Amino acid sequence: MLGAGLALALCALQLCPAALGGSHPQLLVERSGSRRLSKVGGFAWENCGDRTDPVVLQSLSVAPDPISIPGSLRVSAAVSSSKAMASPLKAVLVVEKALGDLWIQLPCIDELGSCTYDDVCTILDNLIPPGTTCPEPLLTYGIPCHCPFKAGSYSLPASDFVLPDVELPAWMTNGNYRVRVAVSSSGEELACVKLAFSLQSQ
């Protein structure tokens, strides 16, 4: 689940190696302060589900701040789950960018942005074909990269990831962002996390 969350957050921001095409879409706008976690200009996170959610993010650290693209990203995290999770795992992402005192919701284009993914397990299978070894550092620390995910605690010590030099659309580059990720199965919410961070592209 830890690996799935990281992959979804990065792909939501167009940091996975894929091209985003099409014309400039219609954007949804809301005024700052209408939601929690409105911090601008620094990394922050919080669990946004209720206390009955079986999956809880215990800790998360990201450096540098702001995140630089391309560049190296150092991440440490810990997640606990009181319930085993299997396919299908639905994920709903809301990605917003700050524009002055407004937050603009970025739309879903080519499965990137504020999207609904019907099954995270299928996405992981496409990224890492079943039967292949999980990539480092997941392998070293015993973090699964395929469904099902067993109940238990997963911890990723500080590890470096390379953010590739991908072509980002102008409206999805430098700035302050908020991401909300909610994961559910058969209508039951399993986890909800909010992130706030800054991006700086070269």
Report a brief summary of the structure.
This protein has 202 residues and is mainly β.
List keywords for this structure.
3-stranded antiparallel beta sheet, mainly beta, 8-stranded mixed beta sheet, 202 residues, 13 strands
Question: What does it look like?
Answer:
The chain contains two helices and 13 strands. The protein is mainly beta and 202 residues long. Strands 1, 2, 4, 6, 7, 10, 12 and 13 form an eight-stranded mixed beta sheet that branches. A hairpin with a 2-residue loop joins β12 and β13 (188-201). The relative contact order is 0.31. Mean pLDDT is 81; it is low at 6-40.
Segments where pLDDT lies below 50 for 5+ residues?
6-40
Into which percentage range does the β-strand content fall?
Answer: 35-45%
Which class best fits the helix and strand makeup? mainly beta
Main beta sheet: strand number and arrangement? 8 strands, mixed
Large-scale geometry = globular
Helix content: under 10%
Give the overall average pLDDT.
81
| E-strand count | 13
Listing every helix as H and every strand as E from the N terminus to the C terminus, the arrangement reads: HEEEEEEEEEEHEEE
Number of helices: 2
Terminal CA distance reads 31 Å
Rg (CA only): 16 Å
